[in-house]
Amino acid sequence: MYLRHLYHPERFHGDGVRPPFFEGWYFKLVTADAAQAIAIIPGVHVTENQSHAFIQLFDSQTGKAVYHRFPLDAFHAARKGFDLRVGANRFSAQGIELDLANDDQSVRGRIAFSSFCPWPIRLFSPGAMGRYAWAPFMQCYHAVLSFEHALQGALCMGNQTIDFSGGRGYAEKDWGHGFPSAYIWMQCNHFQQAGVSLSLSIAVIPWLRRSFTGLLAGLWIDRKLIRLTTYTGARVEKLAIEPAGVETVIANRRYRLSVKAHSGKTVVLQGPKLNDMGRSVKESLSARIEVHLEDRHTGQRFFSGNGHSAALEIEGGQQDLFVSDLSREKTAGRGWKRAGRSKR
Q: Does residue 71 have a cis bond before it (omega within 30 degrees)?
């Protein structure tokens, strides 16, 4: 199954997969004046006896997150395209349609998307995972479906109508058997300079019988992607996690990326565990972020900017994330080569 959708990470990957398995799509919507942001997360969680579909909705203005639970058979995904339905709700690259109601929340409306900007799909690097997308035993896979896109439409949330026309969106997804034990994830596409978006994650990656610190950072500038990832040779030079946020410096052979993220108000979302969606994940949609990109050798500054309306999650401390040493990285490399030979 993973081979069929290798070059289409946006599609559903769960057909025929043995439990435990989860798959979730993440849509972030920010109004034109950046006064309000919401995150909508449709998905499925498959276990031996508690499988279900869900939609989580996080409203930054109220600071409230609501989990809408559905029977598994309420979830439908197109086999050859990106088109999801969860009950009366629909999600695709063209937009979302919501018709949600329970005792805690009522949301209805339609938002159209235009000008999706996905992480490029290449023959030997199919999306954000790069060569690791070929490995069938990863704990968790990740895809950036759109660094930014335009929004048109409105949502009725309770007695309030929120107009997202002229606003900006972001979309990504995760799927696999579980979330990393520790990770940092941040995203921002609200900088002074238009056409700039950052998606960055640092996570503990199980690999065979060991683990290593994995990097996935993409800086989208004027429709060009600058990648600083594990598979392009990037390494963490600095990582400092404080209660108020995180500071990190990562570099590869050419670039050095420095990032400071200051957390805003957080809310607890539900994340996947082996048997349920009982993991508590703290997320902010009002974080502020400082980004600097320079030439690693000359110090020439390619980009410098401050962003707002950023998303930020921090699970664990730097002592949890720095699990890899040189011997383990070499072990991961040998494991990759063995996996490659086994596929052939």
A: no
Cα(218)–Cα(227) distance, integer angstroms: 5
Angle (nearest 5°) at CA 114 between 113 and 116:
95
pTM of this structure: 0.93
Report the alpha-carbon angle 83-275-267, nearest 5: 70
Tens-place pLDDT, residues 308-332: 999 999 999 888 997 654 334 443 4
Is residue 3 a part of any domain in this protein?
no
| Domain-located, residue 236 | yes
Contact assessment for residue 169 and residue 30, using Cβ atoms and an 8 Å cutoff: yes
Work out how many domains the chain is built from and give that number. 1
Q: What is the pLDDT of residues 49-107, one digit of tens each?
A: 889 999 999 999 899 999 999 999 999 999 889 999 999 999 999 999 999 999 989 99
Map residue 302 onto helix, strand or coil: strand
Cβ distance 49 to 42 under 8 Å? Answer: no
